[in-house]
Every structure is written in C-alpha cells, then in structure tokens.
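Hey team,

Sharing the Alpha-1,4 glucan phosphorylase run so nobody has to redo it. Sequence (820 residues) first:
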Amino acid sequence: MTPPDTNSPAPVARGAEAMRDAILRKLTFDIGKSRAGALERDWFMATALAVRDHVVQPWLNDMRAAYDTGEKQVYYLSLEFLIGRLLRENMSNFGLMADVRAALVSLDVSPALIEACEPDAALGNGGLGRLAACFMESLASLSIPAFGYGIRYDHGLFKQAIRDGWQEEFPEDWLNFSNPWEFARPEIAHPIGFGGSVEEVEGGDGSIRHVWKPAETVLAVAYDTPIVGWRGKHVNTLRLWSARAPDVLRLEAFNRGDHIGAVSERARAEAISRILYPADDSPSGQELRLRQEFFFSSAALQDLIRRHQRVYGSLNTLPDRVAIQLNDTHPAIVVAELMRILLDDNGMEWADAWRVTQGCISYTNHTLLPEALESWPVALMEQLLPRHMQIIYMINAVHLGEVSEAYPGDNRLLASLSLIEEQSGRRVRMGHLAFVGSHKVNGVSALHSELLKQTVFRDFHMLSPQKLTNKTNGVTFRRWLQQCNPCLTELLVESIGPDFLDDPEALRGLEKLAGDAAFQQRFAEVKRVNKQALAQVIRERTGIRVDPTAMFDIHIKRIHEYKRQLLNVLETIALYDAIRAEPHREWQPRVKIFAGKAAASYHRAKLIIKLAHDVARIVNRDPMMRDRLKVVFLPNYNVSLAEVIIPAADLSEQISTAGMEASGTGNMKLGLNGALTIGTLDGANVEMLEHVGAENMFIFGLTTPEVENRRKEGWHGQMAIEASFRLSQVMDQLSSGVLSPDDRGRYVEMVRNLRDHDHFLVTADFDSYFTKQREVDMLWAQQAEWQRAAILNTARLGWFSSDRTIREYAEEIWRVPVEH
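Structure output:
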C-alpha cells in the first residue's frame, strides 16, 4: 500500500474508547440525534459512518497508487452485485469488530440489533451477483487494483412475500433510509445515447467518419462504494450508475399546465436504474432490458477510457493497462461500444480498434441454457443502437469472411458462427459477440467448460482452441465462514491455529481431527447452536416450530425447473407417504427447508413454490409425523438470510439436472460449513467430489451423457412413473387434487408435463434420489460417522476459495501481478 501523501490527515484513531467517541460524534453531527432520542437505525448509521472513516484514507491511497505505479487495472462488469450487508464485513476485514462491539456495549446498545438494522443491498438475484461480490472482495484481498461496474438499482430485485402459499412481489426499499457506505459522485456523469441516426461525414483526406446523433440522452451518475480486502490491505471501488434525465423538469410544459408531461422524460430515463430484471415478455420490457445493459456498459467504458487518457494519453496502450471482464452476456454490448468509441470518437483504423478491443476484453459464460444466452431482435437493436448495429454487421462480415476463407463452402458452419441468428426472426447473438470480441472466454467449472466446448461454443472452439478455458468458481471464506459462522471459526482457530484465515488450504489440518470423538462433539455443538438460531428465525417468519435436533435438509436456490426443487418436493411427498404407511419404523427426524425467489413471470416456478406450501400445510399438521418430518419455506431469501441458514445446514441439496448447472457456489458455502452434499454430477459438484471424496457425499442420478441420451431418445416421464410405485402414487395425489383440496385441478398441468415431456428428467432421477435419501438417513443415525464426514467436508474445501479463482484469472487471463 502506498503511504499517504504529506497532505493526508492523520490515521483515524483505533480502540474501543476512540470508536465510542466517533460513534457519538456521528450520531450528533451527521445523524442529528441525541443518545436519548436515537433509534436502532440511527445507531446503525452512526456506527457505519464511524467505521467508514477508517476505510476512506486507505481507499484514496490505493486508487492513487494504481496510477502512480502504472499497474494494470481490472474492470469487472456485472449487471448484479449481491453484496449483502457491509457493516460486519468491513469491521471484520479492517480488524475493527472487537472495538466496535465493545464501544456499542458501553453505550448500552446491542451490537446484534444494530447489525440487523442494515438492509441488504438489493443489487442482485442469486449466484451470478453473489459471485461478483465474492470476486470484488477477493480482488481487494489480493491487492489487485480493480473497479466493479454495475447499476445502482433503486429497488433492485423484488421483495418476496408469500400469501396463501403463492409468491407475491413488492418493491425492495433498501435505499429508503440512505446508504452509509456509498459516496455520490454527481461530478461524474456520462451521457448515454439511444436511438437517432448515423451520418457519414467525409474528411479532408477523403475518409469517411460516422457520427451517431442520438435522439435521446440519459446521464449515468456515479455512486462509489469502497470494497475492503482482508486485513484492510487494499481497498477497491464498486462504482454503480444511477440514471438521470439531463433536464429533470420541462419547465415550459409545466407552466402550460402539463404537470405530468413535464416530468415524463425524467420518468423514462430513471426507469433504467429502477429495478433489476424487468419482465421481458413484452416489447417494452425487452427494450428496457437492452437500455439497462447498454447504459451501464457504455458508462463503464466512458469512465475507464476517460481515466486512462488522463493518465496515459494514447488508447493504443489500453490493453496494457486495462482488463475488462464481462460477467455473463449482459455487458456483451461492450464489444460494439468500445469499437464505436475507438473508431468514431478517436479516429482509429478498424484493425487497430479491433486489436485494442480484443486485447482488453474477456468473457465469462455462466450457462448452457438457451434462454440465458441473450439475443436481441435486430429491429430493436437498429432502433435503439443504430451505430452499434452497423458495427456488429461489420464485425460479423470480417469474422465470417475469415471463416469462409478457412472453410470454403461450409454454409452450416457460417450459420452456426454468425453473430446474427436468421432462423426464427433475425436476432443478434450476444454470446457470439462476446466470444468473438474477447481474447479469452471461460466457463466456471471443469464440467461446464468442457460442455461449452462440446455444445454452445463447439464451432468457435474448433476455430480458436486456445481461447476457451476454465476458471472454477469460488467463494470468499471471510464472508462464508469467518463472518457468518463465528463459533465454528473460533473452534477452528483453537484446534488447528489461525493460518487458515489467510490460507484456506490450511483447513486440511482438520483431517487429523475428523475421527476424534471429543472434537466431533464440539463440532456438533457449534452446529446445534447455529440450528437453534435458524429455528428461531423460522418460528418468527413462518410460525412453524422445528426441532433443532432433527436433520436440517437445506435447498436454497433461485426457483427454476432445472434446479429441481420439484424433485425435492416430490420426494418429500413420497417420504410422507412412507412414514404414514410404516409409522412404527425408526424414521430419522428431518426438517426440509426451502428458500428462493421465482422470476415474476415464471409461472411454473411459482407453482412449485405453491406446491411446497401445500405439502407443508398437510405434513406439518399431521399429528402422526410427531416431528419426524417438517416442511418449511422461508420467504424473501437474500444474503443475510443465507448467512443464518448455511451455518445451520446438515444436508445440502445440489440436485440440478446433470449438465445444466454451470457451477453453483451454494454447494461450496454449505460444504465449507460442514453440510454433507446430496447431488448430481453437475457443475462444481464434480470437482467437490474429487476433493471431498465419494464416501463424504451422496451422489445420485443420471450423468450428463446419460441425460443427453435420454433426451435424444425422446424421454417421456410416463415410463419412469409406470416403473415406480412410489412415484406413481405421488403423481396420483397431485393429479387428483388430494394435495390441493381448494383447487383440485391446480397440479394437473404439472403432472401432464412430467408424464409427456419432463425435459429436466425429474421422473428419471426420482427413484435414485429417494434411495439415496434413505442412505442419508442411515448415516444420520450413526452420528459419529456423520460428524466425521462433515468435518472432512470443511477440511477439504479450501481449494474452493474465490482467492484461488481470482489468482487464476489474474495470471492466465488478465495478466496482472498478484500476491502469493
């Protein structure tokens, strides 16, 4: 870290007494409250501002140092950053936890209540956004200069409520009481154009220059949040963009009496940063999504280019100083926008502009799902981004010309590799654009990257076999072990020493304690305390009482058919039937806990949530169960709720259809905290199996090649249903309305879909899953063996740190120096 310059203020004083004084000053002079009149939220704001003071000077020093030393900087572009609460993270990473908590106690303020006052930043949906947050923290922890670029959503993803078992969506109000971590930068406001026309202007030398004249301009205004690395060694910046109209009020229209029309342009502009993922099942919804993606991508490029030119001058050196990472296809328009800026605004020749563009950009693919590999109607692109569409046509012409030269007459290959889909309405393939415009493309697990080579990018891989690589995801252990599970962290420090706090691979030292009965008992006691905390949350949020001594079976994911929450619910029904049929057997008590949000327009996913609630209503009210089986759906899943659920998990459900989950990171977080995984050989489960050992996981179901073969053969679920008495019984209950007496036809279409199609092979894997769950029961009955396996999961997952992932990106893709 570069030392502060001579004009920098003195370091902020540390210690509990100094922190107490700082909190009181903030309460009085920033919040404007007295101790007697302060509410819990006031104390939170004062505490956060006092902690923030410790962050600011190192943050400014680190930003300046990157330019003083000429270091290459990473720019991570993501439509989501699911950062969660920051007070505990910043206190922990800056080593202020003990001082702040002691200061609050001396003020008769509960630290736990203050921390709970912080709202979750509603800037993401699930794994994609949480991965981006983990990566930002690891970039700072490894002292890699970096900016994260995204959108400052006013409401972000919706707040989920459950009414009569149905999901309802409400605006998330995370910014209602302001955000103490961010710094508004109104002086940094970049113009973002939409629509209009493109003119050709002839230069004095006869050259033609293109001038885009947008019909509409929106301002992207910057808000900066410092991202603190472990032990405060480095602080990076998350810069989020808020949309503003250049003129907040058309005064002439207002004075005419058109009070609504006077602010219509402002409403249209600010809709861009209003919510995350507006529904795109209408033309206006598609347009808003494309406006969002171009808005933050263009703002990011203008920002980093402005900074580069101010410091270094020529844009020819951009690849030497800048690494742009595209997190999925959402920022793929960066390829065309960077070309436009280089060609039109800076007069570069095409070949030079393309060299710079490819040299800067790399792209992470997160999915094999066709609907997630974005494409936009050509007509919409021409209307909204006319100059970019011209550039995309040119990129495509050059690209296909090279393909034709290498493979003359191969029309199939040309159609496969074209950036323009011609089959079902002309559309721009954003994944193709990102691939062509990048110097490196990566998948996020070994299996996923291999499948990319065989499927989505097969022909691209044939053309450029060195471009596609793998970078298996990871999670930050600071958030997902040290902060969310302090009791376990304390036990580990006491038992194997503190080295794992800086080197996750040092967790291997636990292996020698896995068979130690005394350590097993202490490990289990930590889990019991965490389960009691979760049981309290369940009681408060759902009214359901659960037994903390029962197995906590956890399925926490975005609700999606390929993630197969439906398979879990069907097995729950079958287990319920089995317990009723043989009530005198020694059934192992189990609590099935679900959490996750369904996209607002994803009706099948919302029906799965309703089914889970219908099953819970029946199971939880049946006196015959006697706590042997409970079903819980926790509403409004977010990072803070995950931080309570994950330390309490005994069993981790990772049961997606093989070949469809790119990686998963929940599997890593749960395993790290001592949960055993039941799952398919999908995503990072494959690599977890290699590290943890088959005897410490429960693997079931079809493999990826078997899934592919079943689909090629024309799989129909009716075959599996007829072959399985248990599954047939469950299907009969669903179709007859036994589980939905208020609407007996509610699940008829669901059953028909499983019988006739079952694209996600729920029925094909049902018997294997049910059988494997009974193996889970048998191991749970042998607690010494269960605890041994749980300890080994924690011990052997050090490799899945996001620090390791970021090191690989830094060394192999971004080419930036990194600490070891």
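The chain has a mean pLDDT of 95.

Ping me if you want the raw files.
A.
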